[in-house]
Amino acid sequence: MIELNLNGHSVFSPSASEMWLNCSGSLFANAVARQQEGDSGSSAAAEGTVAHALAEEWLKTGKKPTHRIGEVEKIGEYEIEIDNEMLEYVAEYVAWCNNQEGDKFVEVRVDFSHLTPVPEQRGTADHVCCANGKLTITDLKYGLGVKVYAERNTQLQIYALAVLDEFDLKYDFHEVEIRICQPRLHHFDTWTTTPDELYRFGEYVKARAQAAWQPDAPRTPTEKGCLWCKVKSKCPAKVAEVEAMLDDVFNEDLSMQRLDEGKFFEIIHEPKELSREQQEKVMAKAKTIRAFLDAVESELFDYAIHGGKLAEYKLVAGRTTRKWADEQAVRDYMVSLGMTPDDFEPRSLLSVAQMEKLCKKGGVKAADLLTFVQDRQGKPTLAPISDKRAEWSPDAGIDWES
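and the corresponding structure tokens:
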């Protein structure tokens, strides 16, 4: 019998729904890992917590919390300073939330227990706006990681289903708008759907939640599902996935025994020897396999850095870097040789992002800088056909080396 004490946290976490919806076996494994190891979080997560608190105060009081500038919030082991830059980014989210009509709810606890096999399953929706006929769910993502898209976002769909369950009779919703706000990435994404479509998704959630609630639920690695999994470095299904991919590409009869024999990757050929079809099969699994390998390396590093002894690896000093012991002494010495600061300390114009930050700190409208900015298309990268971005054309004529 599995006993979990999550200190009030829902075992079916909406923010982790991409994981447990796709990989049934990840639910208990991650719940146990959180219970045993705790959740130390990260600096980025702590920063996001502070930004959310600022946004909540601003939206509830209607007043810009400028009095908070300079405060240092301690979130776990991290100390986060509230500065003008954070306040300005939060302002973009607040303005987007305020630019709609209806009954508004901020940082509201929503109950989605009707979708799971256990009671007391709740999550916190950043902002909910209920108007006659229309429901709007807005989520603030303060991080600088990858862009998060609104379309079929599982976390926000679960929040929307919770609100529909409680308020649909009152507001008679026939339209639901899902919105993602990532101000630091200048990303504001929306997706409009219907209650009927969400109810169909809800049936899928019920089935997947029931499957995940089984003690022997299988592991199913996916790119999104494995992203935040706490046990991916110890996941046998990940090893099996690599094995299956190799078997599919190279037509070899593999077994887990090959891993113990040290022959797991012996069959890999040079990339040029593969057909385009084989190369695409490898590419389709590249991100999940790379993430798995990184997680294994991180696991071994943490073990070794805390005194653990490995049979075939050891910790060694990293590459030595050189730095000035006393920069001012160096400047004085170079001047004494007859050189000028321009000779040994050349200056360059700040980047666009650095200049925007400088303007915000100085109270200058950073938007005025846009008249001097020229967008340059990023270097092309491979992405799935389903990616929302337009296909890049080799006729673009951009010199990526300049």
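(Above: one complete record from the training split.) The two ends are 62 Å apart (CA to CA).
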